[in-house]
Amino acid sequence: MKILLSGTASDSHTWNLVFLRLFLEEQGHEVVGLGPCVDAELLAAGCLGHRPDMVVLSSVNGHGYRDGLAAVRRLRAEPALAGLPVVLGGKLGIAGHRQETEVTALTEAGCDAVLGEDLDALRGFLAARARREVPA
Amino acid sequence: MTAHVPTFGGFVAASAAAGRLVVQPRMGFGDPDRMRAGLGRTKAATARTAGTLTVDSYTRVNDLAGALAAVREGTGLNGYPIATHSPDTTREVLDGLYGADFPVQVRHGSARPDAIIRALAAAGLDATEGGPVSYCLPYGRTPLRDSVAAWERACELLAEGARPGAVPHLESFGGCLLGQLCPPGLLVAMSVLECVFFARHGLRSVSLSYAQQTDAVQDEEALRALHRLAGEFLPAGVDHHVVLYTYMGVFPHTERGATRLLEASARLAIRSGAGRLIVKTAAEAHRIPTVEENVRALETAAAAAALAGPPEPLAADPDGEVYQEARTLVETVLGLHPDLSRALNEAFARGLLDVPFCLHPDNAGRSLGFIDPGGRLRWARTGAMPIRADPAAGAAPLTSSGLIAALWHVAGRYDLPGDDDAPGEDEGGGRRERPVVAPLTV
């Protein structure tokens, strides 16, 4: 798969992005990295330009929920991107624990998966998507 | 506020003369009352403390509308939105706390800091941190050229906007860059270059930062190199001190490991003559720490520093690899052009400065650091930088598990049972792979 990997609008962290690029490439995927501090407009433009099979958003600065919600809403507002799988991983808030209401809101806005920090879950999600891509 | 104008550099110098290490948290809350409570507790801690206003991420990227919306929505912010709250609100946060015996520094991470500088000056503050490179390349997508221009203005604003009698202070974040896995020669060079930049743009009081890395002896060598190069390259009459950051990378997950790493950084600060230490808390690996956790970290570091005694004779080579690398890099950049702004832009354009693991488009991205078998941080590749790599180390390709092992190297060592500065062997437990999507929060 061609995966577009991106940080979120207010998040300047990059070790997560450096790591995820290596991880995704080792799983056999092609990775387009947009880097940190990617706002919703830039993300949408990146998706329209690069035509990825999936978007992986990673956030660790504690604003993952707010920024992730804006990002997913913007992608879903774009007809050409309405069906593009989007997965969000990392920290949603500053409290250090997962808020189910936030996960629900992200899912309702069109996020296909909200994975927290569990790499096995990401591996599983990618594998399931890859299987779906191959017709039986 | 007291009538006497506090000076940040003067406070650190007086503390050092009295044999006291200044300890400082990274602390910022969106809510003014909570911010005030945090400053109050910092001031009251059993330690010689400076206060911190850490600014939130929206303000840092100049999304002031986002910061305002978050405040109105009641969304928890990861810092104090200094350009959103009114100057009066910030003055109330500081009232009775900020003064000659309790300086306050604004910490942020903005490549375009005009709004932050204006807001802190309006509230009566004059100490902050940053730099044209260190607040640009590692963390965002602002073009380096724009950051350099913005920081020229920021320095001038800070220098000119101070109240009579004040001595504005600016700390270079250059000794941190991505926080970990950058060999010390480049960190030291960036701190020196940015402080020279600050001095050329009007600042008379600066601090040179360095973030604790993987090896205590190498770190001491780096800090001593920083002192020496500051003396060699900063104009006479510019007040300066060295500030150490407790390890900025993946932090130990056990309370014991985190405490031992913090204490090791306090001893390192004393051994190498740093005037100030920015602490980390045991909660750091999991979330943004509470006020109480910050106070505990300040007091733990202060106690470890007090017990460390006076600086010892040199364990590190004062004329060693770190000094030589840093001096070469500083001289190379200063030799590119008399205008340091042009020199910095050109240095990165030509890859003469090249930050490892940095994704910024203006960084060449050809350098790579690694942790050698002895635990020292060294160069696997140096790209076009005028320094040498370890030729044997560049051969192995970087893998995700190799990166995780390197990122977790220090945390793993300190989470294992063992002795203070030389904790357990690095094999076994220190190499565990952890399933994380977001491997660290620096």
From TrEMBL, chain A:
Segments traversing the membrane: none
Domain (B12-binding): residue spans on this chain: 1-136
One function term, GO molecular function aspect: cobalamin binding
Pfam families membership: B12-binding
CDD domains: B12-binding_like
Gene3D superfamilies associated with the record: Cobalamin-binding domain
Listed name of the protein: Cobalamin B12-binding domain-containing protein
Organism of derivation: Streptomyces genisteinicus
TrEMBL record, chain B:
Residue ranges, annotated region (Disordered): 417-442
One term of GO molecular function: methylaspartate mutase activity
SUPFAM superfamilies to which the protein is assigned, alphabetical: Cobalamin (vitamin B12)-dependent enzymes
Entries under InterPro entries matching the protein: Cbl-dep_enz_cat (IPR016176), Glu_mut_E (IPR006396)
Stretches with biased composition (Acidic residues): 417-427
Taxonomic superkingdom: Bacteria
GO BP term (any one): anaerobic L-glutamate catabolic process
Pfam family, one: Met_asp_mut_E
UniProt keyword list: Cobalamin, Cobalt, Isomerase
Stated name of the protein: Methylaspartate mutase
Source species: Streptomyces genisteinicus
Lineage per the UniProt record: Bacteria, Bacillati, Actinomycetota, Actinomycetes, Kitasatosporales
